[in-house]
Amino acid sequence: GAPTISIFLKPPGVIPPGGSTTICCICQCSYGSFVLYKGGRQLHTLEQSGSRVEFSISNATYKDRGPYICHYLEGGTVLARSDELEVSVEELHLPRPDLSVLPGHEVTAGADVMFRCTSTHPSTGCYLYLEGHTRAQLLSREQGDYNLSHVQKGDSGRYSCQCYTINASREWSAVSNTLDLVLR
């Protein structure tokens, strides 16, 4: 079958102006080239043997925000395209939330866990990030809790959260501490 590319930010989250992050593209590919597009415009090409390329964004500005896509080519032919990764650059005014996990960060497969993102700021919504994934999970409004039932191998990894005010001028927090969920 055709290769698939996953695209994600490392570390994930909304980036402050002047901040930095890395766009990672991972593919079970042979030897070819990766091309990074932003809003349909070609930005970078990397010749690559192996499965992973990284494109850095440093000293981010509002110009860096937008949709990014990775293409993988062999001999000029596009063999795979990633999903779209939306990069957000915003001032981070709210305090950093605290991420915790119950019953603990080491669990057995099939267990239920609950992530709790605690913000000192009232009326915020929060996102839960799992490094290596394009999409964030929206945490439930009321508690900032996210329940994960019957955890599997794919749920393990490095989690963080980030909150925003629920009002017209959406303000963002810094990204929380990270937590590693380990399956025993």
From TrEMBL:
<feature type="domain" description="Ig-like">
    <location>
        <begin position="97"/>
        <end position="180"/>
    </location>
</feature>
<dbReference type="InterPro" id="IPR013783">
    <property type="entry name" value="Ig-like_fold"/>
</dbReference>
<dbReference type="InterPro" id="IPR003599">
    <property type="entry name" value="Ig_sub"/>
</dbReference>
<keyword id="KW-1015">Disulfide bond</keyword>
<dbReference type="GO" id="GO:0002764">
    <property type="term" value="P:immune response-regulating signaling pathway"/>
</dbReference>
<keyword id="KW-0393">Immunoglobulin domain</keyword>
<dbReference type="InterPro" id="IPR050412">
    <property type="entry name" value="Ig-like_Receptors_ImmuneReg"/>
</dbReference>
<protein>
    <submittedName>
        <fullName>IGSF1 protein</fullName>
    </submittedName>
</protein>
<dbReference type="InterPro" id="IPR036179">
    <property type="entry name" value="Ig-like_dom_sf"/>
</dbReference>
<keyword id="KW-0732">Signal</keyword>
<dbReference type="InterPro" id="IPR007110">
    <property type="entry name" value="Ig-like_dom"/>
</dbReference>
